[in-house]
Design goal:
Immunoglobulin-like; mainly beta; globular; Thrombin, subunit H; 2 helices; Methylamine Dehydrogenase, Chain H; five-stranded antiparallel sheet; 1% helix; four-stranded antiparallel sheet
Length: 771
């Protein structure tokens, strides 16, 4: 008896509507790494690393969709636009699918492939979409899956490798009622597209051997590309050689009766007779761009190229030497390492080191500067080929001057985005790192970060040297801060971040020696380490945990992030007083009556205090936490599951104190949350109340900002009855429109009576509430 070999995967239909977070969140994603392009309705739909955008060549307008609008935030591998069904379908490296509807922008998330346990995580990549009738054939690294576009649900999946095994399918094509699949599995597979038993691997036949990069039905010719980049026509199941391309063929497409063949450095356009009528490569050599093309399409005889570094390029013709970059404005990259906010501007750097401050392998990523209106991206070449830039510090007395720390090349000084000085051992007192024998390593000068103290002096870390804390003088000379009394083995200690308190003391974070403090006014030093009385640091690494974050709150307490948890130094200045004892301990809170340690054994990557004294804490794999000033109450936790964070690995936090915008830099992109918590201002001249009026159906909070620290805010009805009173911590408060947190107040006009802490300055505003 013959046993029918049916290897059918039943994908349980699972999709969900994703939430649009655009009311409180903003995405700042990079659109320079284009992974795939689709064409439809006279628009170009481009997929960047983890966001998409539509470009209208006629109006030259762009429309972006990112994690804030519902995209998942993972790495995109393929995109297809269906004119028939007015939707875009997005495929991801991890097997996730998302559908974006044209009519309302609604995003559907389909997790069937992502969650399938019988398919290895590394074999779920979506390689290609082929629309055929009312469905798409999805080429994946495990086989082919059907997805019905009419009712948005999966059909069958085909495991077409030998004996029904999984096989990497690179592309599919339908030709003469036959479904063909190019594979990286030794052959081209084909079967009747209308065969009801496509799930039976025995109905699939093979052509040729070797591996195949792609296959396409072009002008009634079935064409395929072999792994050696040779183009063949398949005729009666025979392979007829046509030509060979000069590089790895990454994509086969067709538009407007033209075949488009993409390699990393060339785009070839062929007519129906397979004669080359367009070639793009020489013009990029003229402008010295190191191209890495991923995709190309044609719309109205205009060639669009998606590059992995330069974004979406619009050519003036198939052989044009002129091009225009049409990607949306954004930062260079999504892999953020550190953020710096000053006024309405933001600096983003991408250099990095690992958990023990090792910068290798060295990266060359440049920096990004957001002015509030547009992005300015400075490349590796713009910055005198400075590698591993890990920090930016804005000169508060001259905001056009910025100090960039390099964890391999020293200190870079910019003015108006131009390099004016690069400091390294050849022209300053900066010192190369030392090897275990104490000998310097040429070309390895590690400045991890810089900070201004209350006197306007710039301090910096100079890792793995005899004197790892240094100061820059007004005439750009480097002066050593002597830590020898406290730091016993400096050349065995990596250091990176530095911070300063409001008294001018400077603190240096190290890999295994805790925190080293320096008091410039006296020259005294001290430390927060496990061998110091009163200090309770996590007991995971010896002799001390890696110090990964430091932040002073509004009460001059030092919040300390380590690779294994959170600590608070309640009196850090005690390290400079031999008669005082430090108090460094975890935050303990009760959960169901059981004592718990806040962020126990979490890797803390960054900490920021907002204007109200709340603390924002970034973690390596659990998202972001916002706690109150004591740490006893968690106000928010943002993760991929409940927010637009593109990743739970949040590397850096920065807060715009004037607007309350909180920026989160992750390894997959930059987003921000409008917290409405602002810094206190000097006077009450610019008090704002919003929304105002409060309209029917509104369920949020009313924000009153432009307040001075500790200003008293009373809200009364017009007859003088008090319904709310609060003292401002920072520059704003929020009111839930309830009378002392109980019932909602009725429609009417309410008075906002504000008195400054000095009891002299006052301000009055009004709120109209309409129920």
């Amino acid at each position: 008896m013959k046993i029918l070999k049916l290897f059918l995967v039943f994908f349980v239909f699972k999709f969900g509507y994703t939430q649009d977070f655009s009311n409180q969140w903003t995405g700042y994603f990079s659109y320079l790494d284009i992974r795939d392009i689709s064409i439809g309705n006279n628009r170009v739909i481009a997929a960047a690393q983890n966001a998409i955008f539509e470009y209208d060549p006629v109006s030259q307008t762009q429309f972006k969709t990112d994690a804030v609008n519902g995209l998942e935030g993972s790495e995109i591998s393929a995109i297809h636009y269906s004119e028939a069904f007015a939707l875009s379908i997005i495929g991801y490296e991890n097997g996730l699918l998302q559908v974006v509807m044209d009519n309302n922008g609604q995003v559907f998330t389909i997790v069937d492939i992502l969650n399938k346990q019988t398919i290895a995580p590394d074999d779920k990549r979506i390689n290609h979409f082929l629309e055929f009738e009312d469905k798409v054939f999805i080429s994946t690294e495990f086989g082919v899956a059907e997805y019905n576009l009419a009712n948005l649900e999966f059909g069958d999946s085909f495991f077409i490798g030998q004996n029904g095994q999984q096989i990497n399918v690179t592309q599919t094509a339908v030709f003469n009622s036959t479904l063909y699949a190019s594979t990286f599995g030794g052959s081209i597979r084909f079967a009747n597209v209308n065969d009801p038993n496509l799930v039976d691997f025995d109905v699939w036949q093979t052509i040729g051997s070797s591996n195949w990069r792609g296959i396409i039905n072009f002008e009634n010719q079935l064409l395929t590309v072999r792994v050696d980049n040779s183009l063949f026509e398949i005729n009666n199941n025979n392979l007829n050689f046509i030509r060979q391309f000069p590089g790895e063929v990454k994509q086969l497409n067709q538009d407007e009766e033209k075949l488009i063949v993409v390699t990393p450095n060339t785009v070839h356009t062929l007519n129906a007779q397979l004669n080359e009528i367009g070639l793009v490569n020489a013009l990029f050599e003229e402008v010295e761009l190191e191209t890495n093309f991923n995709s190309a399409r044609i719309a109205n005889d205009v060639l669009f190229i998606g590059d992995a570094k330069f974004g979406l390029l619009q050519m003036e013709g198939l052989n044009s030497t002129n091009f225009q970059r049409v990607s949306p404005d954004g930062p260079i990259l999504n892999s953020v390492f550190s953020l710096t906010s000053f006024q309405d501007e933001l600096w983003v750097v991408y250099g990095e080191y690992n958990r023990i401050f090792n910068p290798f392998p060295l990266n060359r990523r440049g920096v990004s500067h957001f002015t509030g209106d547009f992005w300015s991206n400075l490349t590796f070449e713009d910055l005198q080929e400075t590698k591993v830039i890990t920090d930016a510090t804005v000169d508060i007395n001259n905001p056009n001057r910025v100090y960039l720390s390099s964890f391999i090349d020293g200190l870079l000084i910019l003015e108006n985005e131009e390099v004016v000085l690069k400091l390294d051992p050849s022209n300053s007192g900066l010192v190369n790192t030392s090897n275990p024998s104490g000998n310097p390593i040429p070309g390895d000068v590690r400045v991890g970060a810089t900070v201004f103290d209350n006197q306007g002096d710039l301090y910096m870390s100079n890792s793995i040297t005899e004197n790892p804390l240094k100061r820059l003088t007004d005439n750009n000379q480097i002066v050593v801060a002597d830590l020898s009394e406290t730091l016993v083995e400096p050349i065995k200690t990596s250091s990176a971040k530095v911070t300063a308190d409001d008294q001018g003391n400077v603190y240096l974070a190290t890999s295994f020696s805790g925190i080293i403090g320096f008091q410039p006014s006296t020259g005294l030093t001290g430390k927060i380490a496990r061998d110091v009385e009163g200090v309770d640091l996590p007991e995971v690494f010896e002799p001390n945990p890696v110090i990964s974050a430091m932040e002073f709150d509004n009460n001059n307490r030092l919040w300390i992030g380590t690779a294994e948890g959170l600590r608070v130094a309640f009196n850090p200045q005690a390290m400079f007083d031999e008669d005082a004892q430090l108090n460094v301990s975890p935050i303990i809170f009760l959960e169901d009556g059981v004592p718990q340690e806040l962020l126990f054994q979490q890797f803390i990557t960054d900490i920021e205090a907002d204007g109200a004294g709340n603390i924002w804490i970034a973690t390596a794999d659990s998202g972001v936490f916002q706690v109150n000033s004591t740490g006893q109450e968690t106000l928010n936790q943002f993760t991929q599951d409940n927010s637009p964070l593109p990743s739970n690995s949040v590397i850096s936090i920065e807060i715009n104190g004037a607007t309350g915008e909180v920026f989160f830099g992750t390894n997959r992109g930059l987003v921000s949350f409008q917290s409405r918590v602002t810094d206190g201002v000097d006077n009450l001249e610019n008090v704002r109340v919003f929304p105002n009026p409060v309209k029917p159906g509104f369920s949020g909070v009313v924000t009153i900002d432009g307040l001075t620290d500790n200003a008293n805010v009373k809200i009364t009805d017009v007859t003088g009855n008090l319904v709310h009173e609060e003292f401002a911590s920072g520059g704003s408060i929020q009111w839930d429109t309830r009378a002392f947190g109980k019932h909602r107040v009725a429609s009417g006009v309410y008075m906002v009576l504000i008195t400054g802490e000095d009891q002299i300055e006052t301000q009055v505003s009004k709120i109209m509430i309409i129920r």
